[in-house]
Amino acid sequence: MAAMEAKLEAESAAYQAIQKDLTKAVESRQRLDSQLQENELVQKEFSLLAEGANIYKLIGPVLVKQDRSEATSNVDKRLEFIRAEM
C-alpha cells in the first residue's frame, strides 16, 4: 500500500510539473502573439505614412527622431525574430 501511495505522489508531482510547463508555454505564446500584433500594426502604419513623414522612437522619457529606413528595418527584424520564436 505504501508503495502505491509513493507512486501516486510521484505521478502527481510529475503532472503538476507538466501543468507548470504548459502554463509557461501558454503565457510565452500569448506574449509573443501580442508583440507580433503590435509590430504588424506598426509596420502597417509605416506603409500609410507620407514619404517625408517624421518617425520618432521613444527612448526613456524622450522622443528621438529616427530614419525611416532604420525604423522599418528594426520592425522587420523584430517581426522575423518573433515569428522564429513562435
Automatic annotation (TrEMBL):
Molecular-function GO terms, alphabetical: protein-folding chaperone binding; unfolded protein binding
Gene3D superfamilies: 1.10.287.370
UniProt KW keywords: Chaperone
Domain of life: Eukaryota
GO cellular component: cytoplasm; prefoldin complex
GO biological process terms on file: chaperone-mediated protein complex assembly; protein folding
InterPro entries named among the record's database cross-references: PFD_beta-like, Prefoldin
Family, similarity comment: Belongs to the prefoldin subunit beta family.
Protein name: Prefoldin
